[in-house]
Write a structure and sequence with these properties.
A six-stranded mixed beta sheet has the order 3-2-1-4-6-5, sandwiched between helices. Strands 7-8-11-10-9 form a five-stranded antiparallel beta sheet. The protein has three domains: 217 residues, HUPs (Rossmann fold, 3-Layer(aba) Sandwich), CATH 3.40.50; 73 residues, Chorismate Mutase Domain, subunit A; 120 residues, no CATH class. The chain is built from 14 helices and 22 strands. It starts with 6 loop residues before the first helix and ends in a 10-residue tail after the last strand. The protein is elongated and about 85 Å long. Helix content is 36%, strand content 21%. The C terminus is likely disordered. The chain is of the alpha+beta class. Helix 2 packs across helix 7.
Length: 459
């Protein structure tokens, strides 16, 4: 094996060698950082110091008039290095309260994740200057240890591992390598626009700080490393608290939760949300959650966090999506059309129904309607009395759903089957006794796909 003389290539080799012969995906924009990363990888491969399968991915965001030119540049450079290139076109839609930079980054990572079905290394050209900028951006937002940890050398990206092998290499060293090897690269014109916070820090803030303190970037990187070590300790504590507090995959025991100190409570809530890929709450939202847990037992308070809600029911809080109101949804079913399914709203699944004869009592089979009766599926009811298949006496629908221990918000998401205006079944939960099909009697068989009735401890 040839000796590696370039410090940058040696850093790259030492980083990748510990992962073994795993497929490598290179995030390649054509800028100087990714150009140097790509060229150095090609050099290691040419010298037989790297045997991994390499796929290069160029993401075309379509945000610049030069996007097609950049794509052509990527194709030309990969051809010169005999590397396979995949181009991914993404559509970045502007969203309120989201920066364009963050949206483009998320779209880019989604494209990279989709590139290979098996676990791979996804390499980016992030360097120590990027790390300093990320730290200062987090500081500007008032971030805690997690944000101030900035970027990790490695982190999960779906089934893959995102690795930043040049994170301790300065941008100047990267540019020097590019010039030494006579490399070409492209310059994104948006990089000079200081209306973007990162560009402002790069162009205006960092030069001033570095002029005063030449080693300032290294100092920031060291602070980010300290923050990461502190965050790892907090995560270990949160794992222990979660084990003691967890009631189900999406719920926490309130009695145990409220016994924690405020600091541990806040830490656990943030860790729990991270486990479910939720946006981080504000300090005020976490404070409000703790206050709502003190509400009287007959209340079911909820606190919105990003696109999710924390909802309290009995001695647990549940993390749920922001559900749509389905109370007005209804549809009439015509069995004579031959269509045997319908899609329920708000991702509640597919309802299948078919005429059949069952050989024994079946809780998912009901008597066929009489001639002329309308069949409807709806989510609303007028709280009629009903006699479920498992009870001996009638009760109101509300009382029945309460005794089934179903959370209040889930009671509003149960599909009910009606013949005319008479309740036949709470689909997935019970059939009213007058409509239970006897063995060998023509009946209507109901089944739900992509949806399971909600047990008492899961939402």
């Amino acid at each position: 094996m040839l000796k590696i003389t370039s410090p940058l290539e040696r850093t790259l080799y030492e980083t990748l060698s510990k992962y073994g012969n795993i497929d490598v995906i290179v995030a390649y924009s054509g800028g100087v950082d990714s150009q140097v990363l790509l060229y150095a990888l090609a050099q290691l491969r040419q010298n037989k110091q790297l045997v991994n399968t390499i796929t290069v991915c160029h993401v075309n965001h379509g945000l610049s008039d030069n996007a097609l030119y950049w794509q052509r540049f990527a194709e030309k450079e990969c051809s010169k290095l005999s590397l396979m290139l995949t181009v991914k076109n993404v559509d970045v839609k502007v969203q309120a309260q989201h920066s364009l930079e963050a949206l483009a980054r998320d779209a880019r990572y989604d494209a990279l994740k989709s590139l290979n079905d098996k676990p791979s290394l996804v390499l980016t050209g992030h360097h120590s200057n990027d790390q300093s900028e990320t730290f200062l951006l987090a500081l500007k937002r008032g971030a805690g240890l997690k944000g101030l940890s900035a970027m990790a050398v490695e982190s999960k990206l779906g089934e893959h591992l995102l690795v930043r092998p040049l994170l301790k290499t300065s941008r100047q060293d990267i540019v020097d390598y590019a010039k030494q090897h006579h490399l070409d690269w492209i310059e994104d014109e948006s990089n000079t626009d200081t209306s973007f916070d990162r560009n402002f820090i790069r162009k205006e803030v960092m030069p001033l700080l570095t002029q005063r303190w030449p080693g300032f970037s290294k100092t920031i990187n060291r602070s980010a490393s300290h923050c990461l070590a502190g965050q790892e300790l907090l995560d270990e504590l949160a794992e222990q608290d979660l084990a003691a507090t967890k009631a189900s995959e999406t719920s926490l025991n309130i009695t145990v939760l409220t016994s924690l100190s405020s600091a541990r409570f806040n830490n656990l809530i943030r860790y729990f949300l991270t486990q479910h890929n939720c946006l981080m709450p504000s300090t005020e939202q976490v404070k409000q959650l703790k206050v709502q847990l003190q509400a009287s037992d007959d209340k079911t308070p909820m606190v919105k966090v990003g696109a999710h809600y924390f909802r309290r029911f009995k001695d647990a809080i549940y993390l749920t999506p922001d559900y749509d109101d389905v109370s007005c949804w209804h549809i009439e079913v015509d069995l004579s059309t031959g269509v045997n399914s319908l899609t329920l709203p708000d991702k509640l699944g597919e309802l299948f129904f078919s005429s059949t004869i069952v050989n024994e009592s079946n809780s998912t089979a009901v008597l066929l309607p009489k001639d002329g009766q309308r069949i409807t599926v709806r989510f609303s009811h007028d709280n009629p009395k009903c006699l479920p298949d498992y009870r001996q006496h009638s009760r109101s629908v509300k009382k029945v759903l309460q005794e089934l221990n179903i959370a209040p918000w889930q009671r509003k998401r149960i599909a009910f089957l009606y013949y005319d205006n008479e309740l036949v079944s709470a689909i997935g939960y019970f059939v009213c006794q007058p409509f239970i099909a006897a063995p060998n009697q023509p009946s209507l068989f109901l089944s739900l796909k992509n949806y399971l009735p909600v047990p008492s401890n899961i939402v």
